[in-house]
Amino acid sequence: MARYGFIKTKEDVKFLILYSMCYLPDPATFEIMLDVCTWCDDGFTWFDFKEAFDELVATGHITVADPCADTTYQISEKGREALAAFENRLPYTVREAAQRSALRVVRQAHRDAVISTHSEAVQENDYLVRMGIDEVFALEMHAANAEQASLLEKTFRAHAEEIYQTLLHAMTRDYETKE
């Protein structure tokens, strides 16, 4: 199958990884980096990315952020130097896409950080579900079972802003009826 995109070689994939890492404020997992980079260009496969990523780690261009956890990575000084020397090798459109993709991931991480959900069994057939957006609003609801509590948490995490807007509209609406 033919792949279309600007990224054609393993070296290009490596530069894309290093370039993208510069726009992430925190260390990132392999999966996050894969998400950021594959959103930018269709010219490479998962296998191309994995091979390039592993080589960058092996050569010290990317380091493990927390050796104890061994799950997040960051660009090293050696990686920054290599990127500075070859940054313009990436096409402008790919660099722009990498910046947008990194921003998309950062926004999602910030959103996820301020949304909280928690459920606990109060008694048999009664679960208390706490949901909220930090410093905006909080909501408590009772659920009949663990599955329903889990569904409430999942739905709130996916649609917190919409739920907030719906509640705000309902609470500020004029309910006076004309007689």
Automatic annotation (TrEMBL):
Record-linked InterPro entries: DUF4364
Alphabetized Pfam families for the sequence: DUF4364 (PF14277)
Superkingdom to which the source organism belongs: Bacteria
Protein name as annotated: DUF4364 family protein
